[in-house]
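Chain A, query sequence.
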Amino acid sequence: MRRSLFCWGLLLILTTSDQAFAFGAIACGKLNGHPACVAAVRFDRQITAFEKAVALCRASDMSDCSLSVADLDHACYSLAYTLDENYSLGWRTGPSHQDASDGWQTVCPNTAHRPCKTIFTACEASSNPSDIKFSPALIQTDGRQLPEVQPVAHRDEYIPWPRALFNNLNAVANGVFFGIGIAIVLVAFAYHAAIENFIVHGNLPFKLPIYAEDIQVLFKRSQRVNWYGRVVFGVTARLGMTEKQLSLVRRYWLGRVIAFDSLRRQRQNELARLHVQFAMQAKSDPRDKKSLWSRLWATFRTFIKRLFWIFTALFNVLFGFLFIRVTLAKLAKGKLIESKNLVLVLQAKEAIEESARYLKEYLITAETFDGREELFESK
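Chain A, predicted structure.
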């Protein structure tokens, strides 16, 4: 999976970087009553190549420069015109210069009723001048000769190396970000069930290793000595239930219900709420509204205060993750609660027992909402 994603990302980067200057355009018009065309290639944007081609056409004293405009799209183009009332233009494309030009050399002698003449062949984004070739030789068919065509103009845009480097880096960055986005989408799609279970149910297990006959909690007491010789008390709590009760816990989204929060965790959460209130209540003093400078300074101070309280609240929330929190989903998988304070461990045990009783009553009450009727009579 990781290798395939890496290969796709590398392919996107290489493809994007090669196309940084792969834009070209061809504009055709009439010069002295006869068709002629110009080509502009090796531009970093398609609209720029289009504008340059039209500008070259007009600068060559051609008329009807909007007669035919084409984008050079990942191929070589060979142009020819036919001897009829409007000197209509024709195109042949190919992956290389030879393939495109051979297309017209094969077709032109066989068009007895509409003799044609090749004008030139141009390849997209080519840095080789030989890829822009003119074909002034006349082709005679059915005793008729096509008029001579004026030389065709061609321009390569010179791109300074700092701009070219920046464009290449920008193209590579776009390819990298696009590849990362595709990788994120693929990973999210592949693991959507696990992501949904984590966000909604708090990693509630889909199956229990051992099902119980009813909701019950198995406690296992333990103690150990830490690295500096202090005794650490522990209780491993595992919530047991039937398969039906587990499905009801998932159905009612009870996996994230908190069974126990340590006092330190509650304190950090309370400090975070308090600091958010301070950030919302931060205001400038009325005496600061005398002059414009005072008002601006008061606004800046208020912004700094709010920013400080918001960051303090965020720090308290993140710091609270270091302390104990037990949810029903963690109990279903088995949760080890350790502390040097024996009272804290016993408080956690009592809170878990109370949560198990609450869960059982909740599920029993929830099953009564099945369409049954209940009559209450006041005395």
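The chain has three domains: 1-19+159-190, 22-156, 203-367. Residues 1-19+159-190 form one domain.
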